[in-house]
Design brief:
Elements lengths: L5 H5 L4 H26 L4 H15 L15 H14 L21 H10 L10 H30 L3 H11 L10 H8 L3 H25 L4 H12 L5
């Protein structure tokens, strides 16, 4: 699905394409949806887990993506509103039954999402503000996008014998900012390589990271126009 939006794949008559679309949407949106349900709807973890799984299990079955119009809103805005509608209609536990059809095959690490949520500095007094919740959902979507891209990058490096490339990327680009970044000279000494190797390895891994981010962003965008706009916002320039 590198060159196709998950929205287009979800409309395919082919079951395999639809399943891949659901998995792409899950990867991009399940954490933002889960955290949003926890905060916006004040749901306990188990309840929010059921609602999150139920929402995605029914996403294709109820053909919600066929109704999406990219001219009216971004995909993430549309999905957030769909979540609101879904949760508001789930008044009884019995209604939240697992559906057939498009089943969820991706394991969702809810404990990790709860840990991230507990560390967030969200002002709970703002939870009733639609604007603040929209901003929260957008931030969590960006966090999930980059987190998945980092995981994919690490696997790519391990498969290709480039673990050092990823370690340098971690040491230089993924630091939390609480301390000054190490110099290339320091990284070279620490990893017993030349400074030119540090430069070249980081250049390669950053190109791969950007490529992965763009691939995932394309899948999670409603159309090409939205993809181009999101790429400019996230990466500061046109994809290419």
């Amino acid at each position: 699905m590198t060159h196709w939006s998950a929205v287009l794949a979800a409309r395919s008559p082919e079951p395999a394409q639809r399943e891949r679309a659901l998995e792409a949407l899950l990867a991009a949106y399940w954490k933002p949806v889960y955290k949003y349900v926890r905060l916006r709807w004040n749901r306990a973890p188990e309840d929010a887990q059921d609602l999150t799984q139920g929402f995605f299990a029914g996403l294709l079955e109820r053909d919600l993506l066929r109704r999406y119009d990219p001219a009216k809103s971004r995909l993430r805005t549309y999905l957030r509103l769909c979540v609101d509608s879904f949760v508001s209609n789930q008044d009884k536990t019995a209604q939240r039954q697992k559906r057939g059809g498009d089943a969820i095959h991706v394991a969702l690490d809810f404990s990790a999402a709860d840990e991230e949520l507990s560390r967030s500095a969200m002002d709970h007094a703002l939870l009733e503000s639609p604007e603040s919740m929209e901003q929260f959902f957008e931030k969590e979507w960006i966090r999930a996008l980059f987190s998945e891209a980092v995981d994919e990058l690490q696997k790519l490096c391990e498969r290709n014998g480039k673990s050092l490339h990823f370690r340098l990327f971690e040491q230089y680009d993924l630091e939390d900012g609480s301390e000054p970044r190490p110099t290339y000279e320091y990284l070279a000494r620490e990893n017993n390589v030349a400074v030119t190797d540090v430069t070249n390895y980081l250049a390669w891994v950053r190109r791969e990271f950007r490529r992965i981010v763009l691939e995932r962003l394309r899948e999670a965008s409603g159309d090409e126009h939205e993809f181009q706009r999101e790429a400019r916002n996230l990466l500061g320039r046109e994809p290419g």
